[in-house]
Amino acid sequence: MISEKKALTRHADVPGMDVIDHYIKDGGYQGLEKALKRVPQDIVEEVKKSFLRGRGGAGFPTGLKWSFLPKEKTKPFYLVCNADEGEPGTFKDRIIMENDPFLLIEGMTITGYAIRADLGFIYIRGEFKWIAEKLEKAIEQAKKKNLLGKNILNSNYCFDIKVMRGAGAYICGEETALLESIEGKRGEPRTKPPFPANVGLYGCPTIVNNVETLACIPFILQHDAETFKLMGSFQAAGTKLYGISGHVNKPGVYEYPMGTNLKDLIQYAAGGVKNSKKLKAVIPGGLSATILKADEIDVNMDFDSCLKKDTMLGSGGIIVMDEDTSIPEVAMTTINFFTHESCGQCAPCREGLAKIQQILKNLLAGNGTANDLKTIDELANIINGSTLCPLGEAGALAVNAMIQKFRPEFESLVN
Amino acid sequence: MMQIEVNNKKIQAEPGEMILTALKRAGIHVPTLCYLEKLPPAGRCRICVVEVEGRKDLVTACSTPVQENMKIKTHSPRVLNTRKKILELLLSNHPDDCLYCVRNGQCDLRQLADEMYIRTRDLPRNVKKGEIDTSSLSIVREPSKCILCGRCVRVCAEIQTVNAIEIMQRGSLAYVGIEDDKGMGESWCINCGQCVVVCPTGALAEKSHVEMVKDALGDPKKYVVVQHAPSISVTLAEEFGFPVGTDVDCLMVAAFRAMGFDRVFDTSFSADLTIMEEGSELVHRLLHGGKLPMMTSCSPGWVKFVEQFYPELTENVSTCKSPQQMMGAIIKSFFSERENIKPEDIFSVSIMPCTAKKFEANRPEMGRNGVSDVDAVLTTRELAELIRLYGIDFKSLKPEEADDPFGQRTTAGKIFGASGGVMEAALRSGYFLVTGKELEDLSIEPVRGLEGIREAKIKVNDLELHVAVTSGLGNARKLMDQVRAGRKDLHFIEIMTCPGGCIAGGGQPRNADFEKFKARAQSLYTIDKNEEIRVSHKNPSIIRLYDEFLGKPLGEKSHKLLHTHYKKRELYN
User: Helices in A16-100 by DSSP H: which ranges?
Assistant: First the structure.
């Protein structure tokens, strides 16, 4: 048996969390109050000690990321919250923003203080219009309570948050494409270096953090780094929101210690495979993550454990597939998605994904040749490691893994 | 300086520079496609990937800064395989009709395919579609040949600040297009052709007038007259394997005659004429409270740019026609009368470094009684095509001189071909017009150069004339914004559309880098230094033209033939 631990969903059972008084009554803003009594560098250190790692998918240590900002401040600093939740199979950030908007706002306010930011942005995916409006209302409430705006809680700290809606491009979840989009340009990833911590939004030092990451911050400040760490398992700190979807009895978002076993999550949190069917495959961390066969799911769901199993925790979006699922069709859907969402800037991604799509489409239509799977493998291998951003290789590797792990299914398509 | 290791050999690198820059300096060749000198790296094509020890992913040489003791492999098996596969992907969508392509033989993509040793079509093909866009008078777009390197878009946006073309759609549906999917001719493209020069394939080309000229040359009823712009004689050489900057003026004249042109004139002559008119106009504006600063009008891309983006400044632009159009007007009036050939029987060809000149020749005000002053405009590249078409062995030609009366030029007209040349020529004659004396030193160094905005102050009697020179419309925009914001100290501004001036024009030979631009410009200044007559007002043929026909600068005939007007132009037609 596994048991839920509630750090991010601690107000989940309390209704009306979008009213600031309710949030405060339930312990909200204690983290900020405590934070403002400390110097910013101290908070960065606390977050480092918490071993919090970015929840957007890459798992980069959050405190370390913050410490990349220039020591001298000659330009404005920005904090950008990445709420462009677009990874297929992922629906955790919306739960936070919908149910507990002040948790994110408080997290951003504390982070803004820690990194000496002048302004924060929430870049939210365009389809989340109602959530964007909810956040805007919450921001207004926070301003009226002097929890946002000038001289927050009578300190010298001033910080405001603007909500920006995206226009529907998956690539704008990539942090530099996101920055381009805020600036009103085409959502195309930038070449790196320079990294956003040095040259970010409007050329100014910028920190981009995921919603879930920022939502961890109030807990860490309200309690301490050690308490946060202990919310996790012995090998990984804190809790994680796992979004489980597909052929399970109870699809949904569940908060468990980081590092909870995948098998257990499917079995106990999501109630097992629907209609008592046999499990066929699981994509553990959003569509970009390498697919796992049924006999490979004994994996602890944290960044390092997943990497050891040649897959990734990613966003924690777990997609469960039963025995009736056609993997070639899943592969087709996957390549369609990535081909459609490629920004088109760099050649291997733009042309490579489209070529894999072309070959797979032919294959599924019964016009494939014996050479096709080899060609896809070759293409995936050159896309991997040659693209401007991770989108291209995510798509190519995800599809190639499906082929390699379920090869007979694909081979049977060749006449 | 720091050390890096490339292919097991140590080389020097400057801190902060990109790997590609260090490799170039060390003579190590790495292929590129999207790379453009003087612009920040785009990292789009990924052809320049190299392997760096300790890094999982390959890195692009163009956009990755060097680091102390970095160990790089530029041609490892992984690198070669990746480059080849990326190129194969591009080729699998490419029409493959090289034999019929405008870039036959001179295509960067073809060259790269050869370099990558591509010999088989392994990937399934999916040739791009896209209608050929012939709506522009200057430029033809063939979208199916585009490989989305983005060079054209970046030049248009980042150097010219015109933004006429952009990447539309995304992913594999992406294409270079024009707002609302209009044709280029309906857009605010200013026809400069810088996109054509940087395009690695046949996706962008000038609208060819070669057939038109060939037909005219073959038509016994047509009297075919040609004029060649000042810069052509120092750039055509590159098309025939001479060293960059070689002046082939007299060989080119011989080639014209060999192809059957009836008269060969030199646009540098009408550049001298422009100086007489424009210099007089400046003096007139200065003395009679005319609009200042006055701005040059030789460069048709710039003229359209002002009409579209700074319509309130059109009155500042000199009313003088460009040298091409002055020559055209003189040929179809004075010359036509004198030779007793009807204007409509004369086929007037101009050889220009420029694609915008094709647009300019078509402006409705550039002719009389329904007869155009200039009938066909060939770029330098098209002239080379024509010469090859007629089977002329360029290198074995015997030098010949241009025809009277409009073949005689001064070096003041000749230096029009480099940024700053018009200003220098105008100052030489303007000074004389006002003071009656020649400038002590005719070489005015502060206005020379190919980059940035240069300013100079010249004392002319009591007046300190304040002038500015720039090229490239991004630079022009900076100056215009200052003028629009109320800057008052400038009297005269020279603006050339293309960065560096006509020697770097949109119609010039391709694959030129900044060093080549410098060599081309230097060739013009060498001609200027070595010749006797260096001021336009001393051109004997100019003096004669005023005596016999025009009367005086800004006179009635001049007004009718040599001057024009501009109007506000809407961005959306």
Answer: 20-25, 30-36, 40-49, 62-66, 93-99
Judged on CB neighbours under 10 Å (0-12, 13-18, 19+), B131 is exposed
Chain B residues within 8 A of A340 when measuring between CB atoms: 171
> Closest-CA residue in chain B for A338?
B171
Q: In DSSP terms, which residues pair with B141 in a beta bridge?
A: B133, B204
**CA distance, residue B32 to nearest chain A CA (Å):** 12
Whether residue B498 contacts residue B194, with contact meaning beta carbons closer than 8 Å, is answered with: yes
| Contact (Cβ atoms closer than 8 angstroms) between residue A75 and residue A204 | yes
- Asked if CATH classification 3.40.50.1780 holds for the domain at B211-562, the reply, yes or no, is yes
- Torsion, Cα A86 A89 A94 A96, to 10 degrees, reads -130
Binary contact (A355, B126; C-beta < 8 A): yes
Give the tokens for residue B385. 């095509």
In order of their start, the domains of chain A are 20-230 (3.40.50.11540), 239-315 (3.10.20.600), 327-411 (1.20.1440.230)
Q: What is the pLDDT along chain B (573 residues), one digit of tens a residue?
A: 999 999 999 999 999 999 999 999 999 999 999 999 989 999 999 999 999 999 999 999 999 999 999 999 999 999 999 999 999 999 999 998 999 999 987 899 999 999 999 999 999 999 988 899 999 999 999 999 999 999 999 999 999 999 999 999 999 999 999 999 999 999 999 999 999 999 999 999 999 999 999 999 999 999 999 999 999 999 999 999 999 999 999 999 999 999 999 999 999 999 999 999 999 999 999 999 999 999 999 999 999 999 999 999 999 999 999 999 999 999 999 999 999 999 999 999 999 999 999 999 999 999 998 999 999 999 999 999 999 999 999 999 999 999 988 999 999 999 999 999 999 999 999 999 999 999 999 999 999 999 999 999 999 988 999 999 999 999 999 999 999 999 999 999 999 999 999 999 999 999 899 999 999 999 999 999 999 999 999 999 999 999 999 999 999 999 999 999 999 999 876
How is residue B548 written in tokens? 């016999």
Q: How many CA atoms lie within 13 A of B341 on its CB side?
A: 18
ipTM comes to: 0.93
Show residues of chain A in contact with B43, CB under 8 Å: 191, 346, 388
Contact A191 B41 (CB under 8 A): yes
SS in 3 state form for A269-338? HCCCEHHHCCEEEEECCCCCCCCEEHHHCCCECCHHHHHHCCCCCCCCEEEEEECCCCHHHHHHHHHHHH
CA distance A363 to A356: 10
Cβ B86–A379 below 8 Å, yes or no? Answer: no
Angle at B192 between CA B190 and CA B195, to 5 degrees: 110
Q: Which of the residues B19, B46, B64 would you substitute to probe the A interface, choosing the one with the greatest number of A C-beta atoms within 10 Å?
A: B46
CATH 3.10.20.740 fits B2-75, yes or no: yes
CA distance A53 to B16: 30
Q: Is A321 exposed, middle or buried (0-12, 13-18, 19+ CB in 10 A)?
A: buried
- Fold exhibited by the domain B100-107+120-206: Alpha-Beta Plaits (3.30.70)
- Are the beta carbons of B137 and B185 closer than 8 angstroms? yes
Show residues of chain B in contact with A388, CB under 8 Å.
43-44, 46
Q: Which residues of B form the catalytic set?
A: 278, 281, 298, 318, 357, 360, 365, 502
B2-75 and B211-562 share one fold: no
3-state secondary structure of B372: strand
Interface membership of B267 toward A (CB under 8 Å)? no
What are the structure tokens assigned to A287, written together?
Answer: 């569509």
Q: What is the C-alpha end-to-end distance of chain A, expressed in Å?
A: 47
Domain limits, chain B: 2-75, 100-107+120-206, 211-562
